[in-house]
Amino acid sequence: GAGVSQSPSNKVTEKGKDVELRCDPISGHTALYWYRQSLGQGLEFLIYFQGNSAPDKSGLPSDRFFAERPEGSVSTLTIQRTQQEDSAVYLCASSSRGTQSYEQYFGPGTRLTVT
Amino acid sequence: GQQVMQIPQYQHVQEGEDFTTYCNSSTTLSNIQWYKQRPGGHPVFLIQLVKSGEVKKQKRLTFQFGEAKKNSSLHITATQTTDVGTYFCAGASGSARQLTFGSGTQLTVLP
Predict the structure, then answer these.
(1) Cβ B44–A104 below 8 Å, yes or no?
(2) Mind telling me how many Å the CA of A57 is from chain B's nearest CA?
(3) What's the pLDDT tens digit per position in B29-54?
(4) Which residues of A touch B45 (CB under 8 A)?
(5) Starting from the edge strand earliest in sequence, which strands make up the sheet with A65-68, in order?
(6) pLDDT tens for each residue of A70-95
(7) Fewer C-beta neighbours within 10 Å, C or N terminus of chain A?
(8) Which residues are A31's β-sheet partners?
């Protein structure tokens, strides 16, 4: 595709429910990143995939958060038993296998609201 | 772990004034990137700096990477209303593909 796409664009869910967020990276990009951004705040790193493996899961806030990228392209971020503090914009980014240039291309984000 | 500090958090300027945001890392960086996020939008890549002391220009924007590769700055000359947004620096260490983002500087340009 022309850019990184994410779905849904908005999600309102009740506390305690599970949600699944999807990211379609730019075709051919091997690296994929998930970030979380609360209103007016910076980007909080969640997880990074290289292909279908996740070398760095250190940013996942709790064991309620799970991400996968089974075929090295599309990725899903699942949040189980959502809490109000999970409300934020979840951003996905991808980058290509370059030598020094690791610029990240961001998707439009999924705005999650937990009521 | 690596930390990237960015100041100021907020900056209001009159249109035509200059603007600078500063970024400092707790560790030596292999490269630093700058992103711009318009209100309601997502971060968009602006530039990458790799070499010690490197200076790059994009029209009214000037980017610098410190000699020690631990700090960077973005300077905008004669701001315009189209410059409004939040500017983030993001640093990488070694061969790591992961970026650590600064907290951002939110720029408001008053007409």
Answers:
(1) no
(2) 11
(3) 999 999 999 999 999 999 999 999 99
(4) 103-105
(5) A5-7, A19-24, A75-79, A65-68
(6) 998 999 999 999 999 999 999 999 99
(7) N
(8) A50, A95
